[in-house]
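Researcher: Checking consistency across runs. Here is TetR family transcriptional regulator again:
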Amino acid sequence: MTDPLASPPDRRPGGRTARVRAQVLDAVRAELAERGHEGLTMEGVATRAGVHRATVYRRWRDVGGLLVDVITAAGEIDWQPPDTGSLPGDLTALNEEIQQSLVVQPSFALALMAASFHSEQAARAQTRLWTDRYAQCEVLVERAVERGELPAPHPDARSLLVAATAPIYHQLVLLRAGPDPRLPRRAARAAVLAAAAGAFRAPRQDREESDREQSDREESA
């Protein structure tokens, strides 16, 4: 899943309202990248966008509204998960997209993530966005199951995707380290090997195994 927070969506045709929105959201991204979420103000965005501040207040109301719309716009990107013909290839391509997006605009991505801890509106919008993105990427696991790449019982797709992509965020966001060209493939392969070993069972499978273990303990007591 390409990092939707680090890349502006493709422009869509529209009238003055669409143009103003595009100008304002571009200004929000730039302000976040330069000043961080603490320096984001309605006046600063209006000035950078070349829009009267009354227009910004009328449509977005406050900084929280601006953040929500930036995240909403990220969800409007016309993007499809990679399809390389194999699960390791798909996850590697996904990780490469994430790594590239975080390298292109790291300060903006970090500022927007930080903002979600200070704005309940932004936090809810970001949760919705990532929930949708992970759901969209579950097709990678579904295709792998159809190809016979993963043994039964099949893994929980969300858990596998999180495990495959997490090392990229850990490297670039948490450690603030430079990009490692080998990491996307290495993280993908590790997640696939773990899935093949049964590491990402669905919650229902875990409950069933727990019930069996409980039953075995009661019978042996």
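Researcher: Does this match what you'd expect to see?
Model: One thing to look at in this run: Residues 109 and 216 are 49 Å apart (CA to CA).
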